[in-house]
Design a protein that fits this description.
Layout (H helix, E strand, L loop, with lengths): L2 E5 L4 H11 L4 E4 L1 H4 L12 H16 L3 E10 L20 H11 L7 E11 L5 E12 L15 E3 L4 E2 L5 H7 L1 H19 L5 H4 L1
Parallel strand pairs: 1-2, 1-3
Antiparallel strand pairs: 3-4, 4-5, 5-6, 6-7
Helix pairs in contact: 5-6
């Protein structure tokens, strides 16, 4: 059995994705529900990295396990980087994904540039306080209408100009290859593998 790492998500797709990525590191990824840990973390950070760290720190402290968390969002140049860290709450809690997309289109009406990028920050916190971080970025533009039915969030608006398609028009495999999250996950897996190889005498019992 590999060392247990707690992932800050209740999303089964994220859990499966992280398990696949980290399986080569000899790591077993479990959810807060599986660990019996329930922590409500207020995302008060001003950056994606700060919010990821807040969640990972709280979960590691509560569980005594290494904890992994991520935070991601969309930054639009014409809106001075908005919605940014407020991507999931853009326009208020009453809006769904489609409502947030419509609000973004309305706020970009007449904009001279539609360039934008997605960012994903990942943070892993060990019980001894050690932090491992990784970040991924994907550049693109905001389309003039929602296109495609795959994905979630702002995917129907995020246009990959080289492909002429939005994230929502790509398959899951195509998106993972170029997305901010895919890049961050691969970078994190590499860093974690290196860290574990360099610390063979770690107290696994404490962290497992």
């Amino acid at each position: 059995m590999g060392m247990k790492f707690l992932l800050a998500t209740h999303n089964p797709n994220k859990l499966r994705e992280m398990r696949e990525i980290l399986s080569g590191c000899g790591v077993e990824v479990i959810s807060p529900d599986e660990a019996g840990v329930h922590v409500d973390v207020e995302e008060t950070g001003t950056t994606f990295a700060e919010n990821a760290a807040l969640k990972a720190e709280a979960l590691s402290k509560e569980s005594g396990l290494p904890a992994i968390a991520d935070d991601s969002g969309l930054s639009v140049d014409a809106l001075n980087g908005a919605p940014g860290v407020y991507s999931a709450r853009y326009g208020g809690g009453e809006l769904d994904d489609a409502g947030r997309c419509r609000l973004l289109l309305e706020n970009l009406r007449g904009a001279k540039t539609r360039s934008a990028h997605f960012t994903c920050a990942i943070c892993c916190v060990f019980p001894d306080g050690t932090h491992l971080t990784a970040e991924g970025r994907c550049d693109g533009a905001i389309s003039y209408a929602m296109l495609g039915t795959n994905g979630f969030g702002y995917d129907p608006l995020f246009l990959i100009t080289a492909k002429g398609k939005t994230f929502a028009q790509l398959s899951a495999e195509e998106k993972a290859e170029i997305s901010h999250r895919g890049k961050a996950l691969r970078a994190f897996a590499e860093k974690l593998g290196t860290y574990l190889a360099e610390h063979p005498s770690m107290d696994m019992k404490k962290e497992a």
